Amino acid sequence: MTDHDFTTRVTVRGYETDTQGHLNQSVYLQYAEHARWEYLLAAGIRQAELVAKGVGPVVLETTVKYLRELRAGDTVDVSCAFVWRDGKTFQVVQRITRTDGVLAAEVTGVGGILNLAERRLVADPREALRAAASDPALLGL
User: Fold this and answer.
1) What is d(CA 93, CA 108) in angstroms, rounded to the nearest whole number?
2) Are 19 and 25 in contact (CB under 8 A)?
3) pLDDT for res 1
4) Which of 107, 83, 81 has its CA nearest to residue 96?
């Protein structure tokens, strides 16, 4: 992915499965969201601190490729990498991989940083996160 990947581990819980016995499709998005917040937390960014600064991350677009089913008890590593580009948005690339190495899903998206007072994206999301992070290098900043 990139030089700045982050991974967190999650175990599929029985209540997250659907009538076919595999992980409900919406839960993949929850795992991806969990990994993004864990990534920000590892870089020293806390949700409450962002809100206090008047900003917050937003998801503008998400695509999920479901590749292999996950069942209750499976343990997965959920990776996260921010791909920085010019402008108000950045790409988020994530993979959900079973611990046996089987890729179960790929989640890609576009994100930004919202100015909570103006309800508009900030001009430079990198600078907003760099200013909030105690370890901006972890995010590739």
Assistant:
1) 5
2) no
3) 45
4) 107
| Cα–Cα separations (whole angstroms), residue 134 to 40, 42, 50, 130 | 10, 9, 13, 8
Structural domains of the chain sorted by starting position, each given as residue range(s) with its CATH number in brackets: 6-139 (3.10.129.10)
- pLDDT for the residue 124: 97
Using alpha carbons, list the distances in angstroms from residue 7 to 46, 91, 99, 110, 120. Answer: 18, 17, 12, 19, 30
Give per-residue pLDDT as tens, 4-41: 589 999 999 999 999 999 999 999 999 999 999 999 99
Query: With a cut of 50, which residues of the chain have pLDDT below it?
Result: 1
Backbone phi, then psi, for 24, in 5-degree steps?
Answer: -60, 140
Q: What are the beta bridge partners of residue 75?
A: 11
